[in-house]
Amino acid sequence: MVKSISKDKVYELTRQIPRGMISTYSAIAKAAGNPKAARAVGKFMNVNPKPIIIPCHRVVKANGHVGGFKSGIDKKIRLLESEGIKIINGWIQDFDKHLFTKFKLE
DNA sequence: GCCATGGCTAGTA
DNA sequence: GCCATGGCTAGTA
Hints:
Elements: H1 7-14, E1 23-24, H2 25-31, H3 38-46, E2 59-60, H4 73-82, E3 87-88, E4 91-92, H5 95-98
Parallel strand pairs: 1-2
Antiparallel strand pairs: 3-4
Helix pairs in contact: 2-3
The chain binds a DNA duplex through helix 2, helix 3 and strand 2.
């Protein structure tokens, strides 16, 4: 039996990512208590109950690619660009510079 | 049995 | 671009 992660915690962590920054599915999985649960995090993003409050568009793949988005990748890219993130061919530019990892655990 | 991942490999320029 | 993995979830018994 492996430690499973809480959906609420995943949303709580995602909410901490500030405008102009991004984080990754695996970073959130790790902060939520299971570093290997990246795919589960993606699934939670897919059923995000509060798209405005919870900025799931700021969550991308660990290799710097944008990853998926419920209402279309283009929309995710536009949202990120409107927040100052540069994206070329689906790849986040200056990935390290925008990467947010300082999640607060309560 | 699915998948909004991740990481490794092959194959081109 | 492929496949192994982890964690859901729908749908049957």
